[in-house]
Amino acid sequence: MGRLVFPLSILTWLVVWAALKFGVQPPIPGSVMGLYLSIVTVSILVYLVADEARFEAFLAPLISLLREQRLVVPRLLVLISLPLLLGWFTYTRVRPQFDPPFEARIIHPEPPAKFKLHGEDFDVLKAQRPPEMEVNQENLAAGRRLYFRNCMYCHGDYLDGKGRFAEAVNPLPANFRDGGTISQLEEGYVYWRIATGGRGLPDGATPWNSSMPVWQDFFTDEEIWQVVAFIYAASGSTPRTWEGH
Amino acid sequence: MANARLCVLLLIGSTLLPAIAVAQDFAAKGFKVVPTSPRQATAKDLAAGKLLYEELCSQCHGESGDGQGVMADLLKPRPRDFRRGIYKIRRTPQGELPTDEDLFRIISNGMPASSMPAWRGLVSDAQIWQLVDYIESFSEDFADYPAEEQFLLEGKPDPTPESLERGEEIYIKAECAKCHGESGRGNGRSAAELVDEWDFPIYPADLTEPWTLRGGGSVEDLYRTVTTGVNGTPMPSFSDAWNSDDLWNLANYLHSLGRKPFWGEILRGSKIAAVPEDAFSDVWEAAPVLDVRLLGQIIQEPRLFNPSVQTLSAQVLFDDNEIALLLTWRDRFENTGEDELPIDRVSVLFPAQELEEGKKPYFLMGDRRRPVDAWQWSANGRTETFLARGMDAVTPRTSPVKSQGVYRDGQYRVVLRRSLKAGQDNEVEFSPGTMIPIAWNVWDGQEGEDGKRRAVSRWYYLLLEPETPLLTWLWPIVVVCLTAGGEFFGLRRLRQHWARQQTGALQPTDGTESQA
Fold first, then answer.
1. What dotted CATH number matches B26-151?
2. Interchain CB distance below 8 Å, B295 and A87
3. Which fold has domain B161-257?
4. What number is the ipTM of this complex?
5. Chain B partners of A196 at a C-beta cutoff of 8 Å?
6. Residues B72-125: tens digit of each pLDDT
7. Cis ω before A26 (30° cut-off from 0)
8. Does A162 touch chain B (CB under 8 A)?
């Protein structure tokens, strides 16, 4: 049993490490990982030290590695590779790293109270779908046609934001089937985002990166309502409303 | 009556005989061929398939399966017309219909570099089978003349030098280069004249960018394509002239023509003694590549939905005074403006002013508040620079950029050089260690791309890597020395300790230890 103390201790440590590293989704942040692993290391050491015989059994393979004549080759390997490994580790820590600057981006920025829609003021918060633009077969069919001829290249056939150009743009096209996009938003907000596109975003939402066109340059007011109706219906989402509040 | 029976028998015989003869041929040439087992579609599956098809497929392929959906005219390649029963990607012999599994695979995996998405994961496998059933119902041929046999993609040999050599030999003998070009960039002599079954121009595949191959870029995929051909296109099947081993070697060779893309965020360049002026200089081989995906400029009219160039490779090097960018991209035809067609062009964009609080210019040629410094090279050899405040506000200015551009075998290689320091106002300045936003635009004149109709990229970053500070090397060396020293002295102490233990064990009465 004594001979197994050393390998078992190492194995335990490795098993815990592997479980934390590969078994937990989403991945644990590096600092937390370090904390957990120190706790594991200390626990294993405390367990080993608690019993003198066990501690000696743990040290025995290490001592024999350092002491026994027949282990001269592995001993030299360990003694040479340890400083090199630590040196390499230090190098990876101190070498200059260049990561792209972090661009904080507000995904659903606060809309302006009003914006110019084809020259007229449009009140984003009070915007209501006009009665003649109700969600019916005709408007949905028109919205579908507009969507596929204009939006599908980025937002995709399945409205999941995986169109043909999706990989070429950043930020990625919105996935309308994701609960965090249009279902979180009112129709008036989505109307604003479509009408003014990437250029209409406030600075906090990195308008210079967005490839969303300014759709009021292409669509009439009515057509934007039709597209809004279609993306909600086709993605199985419902707009957020303030009714009943 | 007897005559009529004889006629029928003869008729059956004449249709069956060639099929049998062909089947024997395949086996004799080492192809592994197995019979197909067509599905029997139920009315329920067809009804479910119809609903799915109308929701998910009809926008391109049309309600009636004619390939004339509402957006068909914007797509290239055009959506398949299912009524004709002509399918490109199949494991069945040339001219035959695909198997149900062929259709299942295409719907599941989609077709790269086209608008056909991969549906697996979005809809269930059972639903994909329902779609297969419904799509087959557009052509009566699936009931009348189903494919009887299909190739197995088994027996792939290792890509040994011998296999690749044999493959190259076949590439030459089978005249692949006539369409696909010497280097496989799809720029062969006949490339400009090819049309498909529908009389639409069609270009030979570019084998150097295997991630854009519609049928997939694996060795198995390439073997399947050379074995079965691409129905409806000029790409023939080679299974009549070559045996299976030959085509596997050819597939290995075709695969070896493909390069590996380096997608990323940062274009990194290191310092050298003197930047190269030559686009084919050897020093470029050591410079890391950034591959950039391009999208069509679909943001402002006139829009470009199908950019001809979809990938651009960029490299950068610098010396004490100058920066040199090498841009490489595939273009099947050189357009220098000598004919009616627009000139091939490329441009590189940088913010013209230092970024304030990280605010970049608009990625499409800047905006009123934040202009871009645009360097443009045209295939007629001209180099220009512009200060642009949006695509409609582009002002030419004296160009401090020097260039060398070469068109060779279906590929442009263009070197752009400029001093690191800015020479005038609103010009980008390069200093090592700074992340500078960089973007690209590309025009393919052959496709009529001109003005706003261009391929564009989003912002990436350019980084000229500064020389590694001495401290970076010092710390690891200190750590190595300290650890090695610790080991040395620690081990010496241990040895002394063990030696004393041994002598202590031999002479238990010795009192030296207690005295110490």
1. 1.10.760.10
2. no
3. Cytochrome Bc1 Complex; Chain D, domain 2 (1.10.760)
4. 0.87
5. none
6. 999 988 999 999 999 999 999 999 999 999 999 999 999 999 999 999 999 999
7. yes
8. yes
